[in-house]
Design goal:
There is one protein chain. The chain is an alpha+beta fold. 39% of the residues lie in helices and 22% in strands. The protein contains four helices and four strands, in the order βαβαββαα. Strand 1 (6-8), helix 1 and strand 2 form a beta-alpha-beta unit. The termini are far apart.
Length: 114
Amino acid sequence: MEIGKTLYVANRKEWRDWLKKNHDKEKEIWLIYYKKISKKPRIPYDDAVEEALCFGWIDSILKSIDEEKYAQRFTPRRLKSNLSELNRKRIVNLIANKKMTSHGLKAVEKTFKC
């Protein structure tokens, strides 16, 4: 699979802002992560996944770009797809902390009976 449209964000807020504007318009985005050796700011992986879940998106394929960076594919979650145990725990926590959006809740309502 080829890397499609990419996005670099330095922090959780920038990623959430992008998701807020684009979660219902885009079919995928490849989030750029700089490796620690680059010393460039980067969103922590767990933060990226949690924010994606808030909008009904999930992470998947990881691809190396070069020595400094790699990309991870994020897409809207299919309604009938399974959730990993870790993502189930993340979602329970996100719901408890009122971080989930209505779109994110809809994406998991059958699993969690929200």
